[in-house]
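Many introductory courses stop at the sequence. We go one step further.
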Amino acid sequence: MALKVKCPTCGRECEYSEKNPFRPFCCERCKLIDLGAWAEGSYVIKSKNQEADDDLDISEEALATGKQHNKIKPENEM
């Protein structure tokens, strides 16, 4: 027996199994509505500290080695 869940977009009950390629959504439309909401910025994952791009070391050396270091020191090192 397949698990029945509510579609996060419309609330309609749908089957959560391999038979439903859009799971956990009921259809492609609901999946795209949710994707659009993420792209639009309607959903936000908050974090305590957000670094601006200006705070990152993106010198040629850092990019060549794949390392990015903060230009500014953390508060506990000041």
